[in-house]
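Structural prep section.
Before we set up the soaks we want a predicted structure of the protein with zinc ion in place, mainly to decide which crystallisation condition to try first. Input record follows.
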Amino acid sequence: MTPRVPPSRPASRTLPSRESYAPVARVVPSRSAREVAESVLDPELPVLTLADLGVLRDVTEHDDRVVVTITPTYSGCPALDEMRRDLRASLRDAGYPDVEVRTVLAPAWTTDWISDAGRRTLAEHGIAPPARIGPRPAGPVPLNLTPPPSRVHCPHCGSADTVELSRFAATACKALRRCESCREPFEHVKEL
Ligand SMILES: [Zn+2]
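Run finished without errors. Recording the tokens verbatim:
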């Protein structure tokens, strides 16, 4: 009597054999993995791509595997899981089914990493970009609980006469402000 054998599976990932996998209609990539990863939108600031935001550290391709290294905007940021999911989904749809997303926490991301293009995009969407803070000493980053002294310009009229209405807007990374000149409320990406 022949013993019953469970359906065979690939014995080892180190010995890939295309024949051992069920045939899947594979999308032939038309863009590099880096281009795809760079174009993924940030879950918290969906007008910005991950490239604009400066969170993409590295994108490498080893055979069929893509390794994306990111530095999340805030440690413990709830958007991190979403960012990972979006990266995997976008790369899979673009023809890169095997994706590993690694996170690197040091050096810590700061709002200074948001590109000039990203700052323009924020302003175009009525969101005041963060002021540039400049290099900071290494070591623990002090947590600022008081609003920074920098002036925040209204993204609608450019006036610097703006007041903070709420430290937290729709997402923790933004504050809600109002312009005293044009009276329009707007969101401000807080400096970090
Ligand atoms: Zn204004």
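Observations: Confidence is low (pLDDT under 50) at residues 7-17.
Flagged for discussion at group meeting.
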